[in-house]
Amino acid sequence: MINFTVGPVQSSDEVCRQGAQQVPYFRTAEFSEVMKDNASLMMEFANAPKDGKCVFMTCSSTGSMEAVVMNCFDENDKVLVIVGGTFGDRFAKICEIHRIPYTALTLNHGQKLTTEMLEKYDSCGYTGLLVNIDETSTGVLYDSEMLGNFCKKNHMLYVCDCVSAFLADKFDMQSCGADIMITGSQKALACPPGISVIILSPKAIERVENSKVRTMYLNLADALKNAERGQTPFTPAVGILLQINTRLHEIKNAGGVCSEVERVKALADYFRNSIKDLPLEIISESLPNGVTPLHPIKNNAKEIFRILKDEYHIWVCPNGGDMADSVFRVGHLGNLTLADYDQLISAFKELHQKGIL
Lower CB count within 10 Å: N or C terminus of the chain? Predict the structure, then answer.
């Protein structure tokens, strides 16, 4: 199978070899050094603020989204949530569950967020903003600098879910003023799912340390304290953390963040240019590098996903909800090559000749 989904994605041979090793005991100085190295490289790649800190959570990125909301906000806050798809809606649901007052700035599927849309929320007493920088469900990239300027002007805690944007699109915590960045092991890090990463600015750390949150497993103050010694409060996904270390050094040795972002962009550009003559509509007004959302003009998206999987041994990414029959997505993350895309494009052309696409 060739995997063109947006997560889990294909891993490099070196990451796979690391994953085949026996998992070591982790309460050791040696593993602590690996964890500190992971944190250092993650903060370097995100250009984290001075005195920022990084924690590794053994959970999906949704767990880290919830941890951030629980530990950084309470009933005295007023949060603005950008809702342009499934993952923005997830932030809103987390706020609702934890009784955090919030307002949803709701966009249509594929719609670009503009300064004019934000203006009506200016000087309205909001204390935080939650956004999925790449709203992966609809394939929309939001302008992190624009949002950062808005948050700075309004003295808001700026929380960025960069699960699909990190290492795929240009994102710089210091440049855009982000206070928190969240990402996951199974996206551009191209490791198995199971680890989520949170990078916090000093402003966010202060909020965490003053929080009266009632949680054991998702207590970020506890995670930060343990991170000082290169450890976690509870047993982490040790094997994946070792794979992350391998992958971070791969990226570093290949030229760093800029090189990885350019690699992903080159794959996306090649694919998009190659399908221009096919009856596939790109539905996003602001495309990220990591994913291309496609509406098959003549046929059912869910059926195309099934045929590619069963007859061509290719995974693309199906959509759910009201887009299940109308949209599927093609990812550009992980260990993919132009030759892999040639196989996908060839399959598309064959399906078009058969009247299926």
Answer: N
